[in-house]
Specification:
The protein is mainly alpha-helical. It has a single domain, classed as MetI-like (MetI-like fold). The chain is built from 14 helices and no strands. Helix 4 packs antiparallel against helix 11, helix 9 packs antiparallel against helix 10 and helix 11 packs antiparallel against helix 14. The longest helix has about 35 residues. It is globular, with a radius of gyration of 23 Å. It starts with a helix and ends in a 12-residue tail after the last helix.
């Protein structure tokens, strides 16, 4: 038996896996599980939190806002991110690596700092308002904050890397011979992208779409800082239930609905592509 085989078997030992499983249980399953269990144990078994949720008009409005904003952000990220990823994938490796480094670095900047930067840019005295007046598109300076536009713009800025990186990886995995074959048969650049490149990059698009949409569903800081009352999302509503009304069970019911929506998305993705593509596997 080779050393590598013995090493791989050693890593697969169930005894070595126990600390990792315990770590996951303590840090992930236990906090989330206790919060969800609280939705039906308040303090005894009851479904009144879910019954209250079903009868709450405010909840359905906020859920609609959450899904609408998440879908919009995902669509904008795709429309902006796919051409960007396509251009990065066709650049020389050194230039592409530099651009991807900038994209990744933007993820490491504090979310709160980026939101406050958008507050400065979109404020009444900000660059955007001043530019609109200077170009004649507006008669006077006005704030562009506290509406759905500012929320979608800032969330797109935050989540765009999660669309670009998987799509770049999928584009780089395409065999260049297929692109050359399409061009040799007389197809123009647009036709090659539409009929060859885009279908082959769909796994990367699906991965980016799932990541962006699921992350957008749970956003709190951006809609809280840049949005108005009409842009309240589920995470903001849960924060209000916990901190202001101390209704932990009711907030847990909100979390259960959000978890079900997320699991449905992952199930649909897994059936089509295989969920292991999300962490770099080959999928189905």
């Amino acid at each position: 038996m080779s050393a590598s085989t013995r090493s791989s078997r050693g890593l697969a030992s169930p005894w070595l896996a126990l600390p990792a499983v315990a770590f996951l249980l303590v840090l992930f399953v236990l906090p989330i599980g206790s919060f969800l269990v609280g939705s039906v144990l308040d303090p005894d078994f009851t479904l009144r939190n879910f019954q209250r949720l079903e009868a709450s008009r405010a909840f359905w409005i906020v859920l609609q806002n959450t899904i609408r904003i998440s879908v919009t952000v995902t669509l904008v990220c795709f429309l902006v991110g796919y051409p960007m990823a396509l251009r990065i994938a066709t650049l020389r490796p050194a230039i592409a690596a530099a651009i991807l480094l900038v994209v990744v670095l933007s993820v490491w900047i504090s979310l709160l700092v980026r939101n406050y930067a958008w507050m400065v840019l979109l404020g009444r005295e900000g660059i955007v308002s001043s530019a609109l007046v200077a170009l004649g598109y507006a008669a006077e300076r006005r704030s562009l904050l506290y509406n759905e536009f500012s929320v979608v713009l800032a969330m797109t800025h935050v989540l765009l890397p999660f669309m670009v990186i998987p799509v770049v990886a999928a584009l780089r995995a395409i065999d260049p011979a297929l692109v050359r074959a399409g061009a040799s048969l007389g197809a123009g650049a647009g036709t090659v992208v539409r009929r060859v490149v885009f279908p082959l990059s769909l796994p990367g698009v699906a991965t980016g779409t799932v990541l962006v949409f699921v992350l957008a569903l749970g956003f709190y800081v951006t809609p809280a800082v840049l949005g108005g009352r009409g842009q309240m999302m589920l995470a903001m509503m849960m924060e209000s239930e916990v901190n202001e009304q101390l209704a932990w069970g009711y907030a847990g019911a909100h979390a259960a609905v959000l978890l079900v929506v997320t699991l449905l998305i992952f199930t649909a993705y897994n059936r089509r592509f295989g969920v292991d593509r999300l962490w770099g596997g080959h999928g189905k």
